[in-house]
Amino acid sequence: MDIKTYLSRKKVIIDKSLNKLVPQAKTFPPAVHEAMRYSLFAGGKRVRPILAVASAEALGAPIADLLPIANTLELIHTYSLIHDDLPAMDDDDFRRGRPTCHKAYGEAIAILAGDGLLTMAFEILSDPRKQKTLSSKRMLAIIREISTASGVFGMVGGQVVDIQSEGQDVDFPTLEYIHTHKTGALIRASVRIGALYAGAGKRQFAALTHYGELTGLAFQIADDILDITSTQEELGKDIGSDLKKGKKTFPSFYGLEESRRRAIEVVDKALLTLKDFDRKADPLRELAKYIIHRVN
């Protein structure tokens, strides 16, 4: 299959759904809604909702009712990027080729835009009008999965350790913790949400969970490599920022070539987790390979 065509088609579907879910820019108060949409529709690849969709498709489930759920992952991811870019965090000026949210709208509105996206995600997840086919038990499991991956035992915890580790001579387990929580937790959750939605059996759920963990790790290793090897035009943001901030990365531990080898090794392991799935899981297989060969 052609993964670029698959991603392009799914992105169109997801963007249309997102556009309906998120208030239009002129909705009162317009400042926060404009800032939310500015960051949300800045050209993201929608990897996380697409992983949720591909996971459900691997189990043969229709995805129409999954879209609102999957799209909350993009709201949470975008909130995290807005806050990561703030002066108190990574202090970045550009994101996806244009000024970061706080550069465009000021720090206060950027913080509130991030807050708005995060809380809107759970407003959508808890709205019975948007979810009529899932049992309340399964819906609660999905909400818990997303909230855990987003909070102090997931993305927030990883960000805390990442900030505290700047300029420090941290060991590899600490780096691994940062990667598997700051980035990996939400990617793992994306895959698990698709599996929960589709009613995966225990063995299927365990396999998809392992796939999500490995894919999340591969994604972050690729990010570490791109921060060194890519250009600002390709990446859409400042390059070499990890080095400037004194952050430990896979290349700083192992060098570029060994990091590339390890990324391939992790993806190979991810592909093995899908050995009992048929061709309906091909999008997941191709997504894992795409993640380490992307240029941004």
Helix and strand topology:
Blueprint lengths: L2 H19 L8 H11 L6 H12 L8 H18 L9 E2 L2 E2 L1 H5 L1 H19 L10 H15 L4 H10 L7 H27 L3 H28 L2 H4 L5 H4 L5 H5 L1 H17 L9 H12 L3
Antiparallel strand pairs: 1-2
Architecture overview:
With 296 residues, this protein is mostly helical. Helix content is 70%, strand content 1%. The chain contains 15 helices and two strands. The chain has a two-stranded antiparallel ribbon. Strand 1 and strand 2 form a beta hairpin. Helix 10 packs parallel to helix 15. The longest helix has 28 residues, at 202-229. The protein is globular. The two termini are 21 Å apart. 42% of the residues are buried.
Q: What would CATH call the homologous superfamily?
A: Farnesyl Diphosphate Synthase
> Cα distance, first to last residue?
21 Å
- Widest sheet, order of strands: 1-2
Helix content: 55-70%
Query: How many beta-strand segments?
Result: 2
Q: Tally the helices: what do you get?
A: 15
Summary keywords:
mainly alpha, two-stranded antiparallel sheet, Farnesyl Diphosphate Synthase, 296 residues
Quick recap of the structure?
With 296 residues, this protein is mainly alpha-helical. Helices cover 70% and strands 1% of the residues. It has helices at 3-21, 30-40, 47-58, 67-84, 101-105, 107-125, 136-150, 155-164, 172-198, 202-229, 232-235, 241-244, 250-254, 256-272, 282-293, and strands at 94-95, 98-99.
